[in-house]
Write a structure and sequence with these properties.
The structure is a homodimer of 296-residue chains. Chain A has helices at 2-14, 25-36, 50-58, 69-73, 88-98, 113-123, 168-180, 190-213, 217-220, 225-230, 238-247, 249-272, 275-293; strands at 17-21, 42-46, 64-66, 78-81, 104-107, 130-132, 134-136, 157-161, 184-188. Chain A has 13 helices and nine strands. In chain A, the strands form two sheets. A six-stranded parallel β-sheet of chain A has the order 3-2-1-4-5-6, sandwiched between helices. A three-stranded mixed β-sheet of chain A has the order 7-8-9. In chain A, strand 5 (104-107), helix 6 and strand 6 (130-132) form a beta-alpha-beta unit. The two termini of chain A are 27 Å apart. Chain A is globular. Chains A and B meet through helix 8, helix 9, helix 10, helix 11 and helix 12 of A and helix 8, helix 9, helix 10, helix 11 and helix 12 of B.
């Protein structure tokens, strides 16, 4: 255990100055999780709106809050891009202009191929600033720094992406960073990430939005826990999720087609009144879910 | 508040002897909720298997456990049929043979037209034994009396059905019975029930089973809370749910078609890269859900 603690300390010490751009639910939870750990880093938050800056300081999610990227990244060892997905590449471009050589940049975006390919292209010209794509898979249907929590990431999966262009030192440091915050790191290419996440995250969101769309408010008043849980993520931010869907279109359409095939098969068995086929489909899903997700 | 308590007491006193046939999650929770309340009734549980009988007595879900329906319903004022859906009509037939005139019979089945039409036909010849269809909408993906809880029903909806043949005195007593257990009663015809519940309960279950079917175990290992919640009910009992689906076929197929329409519309907007249409669909679902389901 001592070994792990030392390792953690080293990792944190490597990133003495950490700048988080976009301090909402995810950025704020990173700030809180960093500040929970005993280390010597300074956490700067970069904000788009002054009202969020005040909230984040009140919530103690960052040490310093600023509105200007240039000054915030000048001394940064690590920059975390934690804005909505569609803003990440343009924020990365601004970071590249002001960061010192050796700065490592990562992000928390829910799609990776779109983001990583854009930023890698951008960073080709920026000597010594390295980008490693990340996706810490924790969240909530509630947005904003006021919902941030130091424990949001504890035990959650974090996919860190690797490409031909990924700098291996930066990659190792980013992996250690997420591990030190309690996340369970998995390594994938951006494409593998997008395919996997389209199935386990984007598809459930799309399904939950459609399910909610199919039911009227009056009918919903009779709903019990089953409906509530199945549609929980349909209370997520529409703008944010539209961008996630649109930056991972191809994988989501493929995932949607897989779902449609399964759903049609089940409806067909029900339509035929085929109890044996119906039970078989349900058993297959239940046993898979029970095996891989355990009980809460 | 005194008025309510007296009313509750009267209701309970009207049903001095209550027999629950099938003491699993739902039947067991009814027993526990009854025993939590101060009243003079005796609760008899009827079991199919001796091992469940022992569990239920250990769990204190019933006062007396028996294996034989005839003796258990002879003195009953209220009989609650709490078995899996497909067994309810045949159990009702057995009850009709042994119950005294004036006995009221209700059930907890998740489909109503199939059950109510069968039992009303059966009970035509049984002078003075009245059936009122009910569906307390609480549950869990965990089955069995060991998961039963005295609070399972607190604040949950309970649909009580009314038809041309429903005895109005029996109907009022059954409504009062569920209210006294803390449920929020809604009155519908069996057909209205089946249509509503196909959308808010059966459809989410079918969707969750299909969603789980579309994802491999390996992919599931990266899943976060969103996937876990959206698919929670896919861990429900396959045999039980196959029977619910098959006894409410028509309504589920219609609900499935409504879902398909919504889902296809969302995928179409994503495929086109139409941000405006995508945001509109997501906003519509989010605002409806937030309005009618509030936050937990």
């Amino acid at each position: 255990m001592l070994r792990l603690s030392t390792e953690k300390f080293k990792t944190m010490a490597n990133f003495e100055n950490i700048t988080i751009i976009g301090v909402g639910l995810i950025g704020g939870s990173i700030g809180l999780a960093l500040k929970k750990r005993p280390s010597a880093h300074k956490v700067i938050g970069v904000f788009h709106r002054r009202v969020t800056l005040k909230k984040a300081l009140k919530h103690k999610a960052v040490d310093i809050g600023v509105m200007d990227i240039t000054s915030a990244v000048r001394d940064a060892d690590l920059v975390v891009l934690a804005s909505p997905v569609h803003l990440i590449p343009e924020l990365a471009a601004k970071v590249a202009k002001s960061a010192k050589p050796g700065t490592i940049v990562t992000d928390v975006g829910s799609t990776k191929e779109w983001i990583v390919s854009k930023i890698e292209k951008l960073f080709e010209a920026s000597a010594g600033v390295h980008f490693v794509g990340s996706h810490p898979m924790a969240g909530s249907e509630h947005a904003g720094v006021e919902s941030a929590s130091e424990d949001l990431f504890e035990g959650s999966p974090c996919i860190v992406t690797k490409t031909r262009r990924t700098n291996s030192v930066a990659f190792k440091k980013v992996v250690k960073f997420w591990k030190s915050l309690g996340l369970n790191v998995k390594i994938m290419t951006p494409r593998e990430h997008d395919r996997t996440v389209s199935l386990i995250s984007h598809l459930p969101h799309a399904v939950a939005f459609a399910l909610t769309g199919a039911v009227t408010g009056k009918e919903m008043e009779c709903a019990a826990e089953g409906f509530r849980d199945t549609t929980r993520v349909a209370s997520s931010d529409p703008e944010l999720w539209a961008d996630i869907f649109l930056t991972n279109r191809k994988a989501i359409l493929t995932a949607g087609a897989s779902f449609n095939k399964q759903f049609a098969r089940l409806l067909r068995a029900i339509a035929k009144g085929d109890r044996c086929a119906t039970v078989k489909i349900l058993k297959n899903s239940k046993s898979k879910r029970d095996k891989y997700l355990h009980a809460k």
